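Hi support team,

I submitted a single chain yesterday and got back a structure, but I'm not sure I'm reading the token output correctly. Could someone confirm the output below corresponds to the sequence I sent? I've pasted both exactly as they appear in my results page.

Thanks,
R.
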Amino acid sequence: MKLCLLLLLLATSASAADFNGFARAIHTVETGGRVGAILGDGGRALGPLQIHRGCFKDSGVAGRYEDVSSLPVARAVMHGYLSRYAPAALASGDWATCARVWNGGPKGASKSATLGYWRKVEAKL
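Hi R., thanks for writing in. Yes, this is the structure output for that exact sequence:
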């Protein structure tokens, strides 16, 4: 029993560490690592991870949209969004699928337009 708990803890820690690296790569690609109320996409995206209102709503994270200017909130929104639209990819560390969904929406992994975005993220991992 103790061995199972230890393995679960190690797997969870490794998964969290991997997500942290992925989130840093997205942050670098989206805003060069800047933080704060950064506007993008003609004012339609906000914060260090360039989050749109629809993405915020879909993430299930409580609060106000403007809260995505905070990096911890933005990361929670990204995790919530990917948990909804790419749960298997998120759980397995399939960062290509996660990046493409993050960039192109729920069906982003099947859009050829998101391949270039993934290559940028991959270079930062």
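A quick pointer for reading it: Residues 33-73 form one domain. Let us know if anything else looks off.

Best,
Support desk
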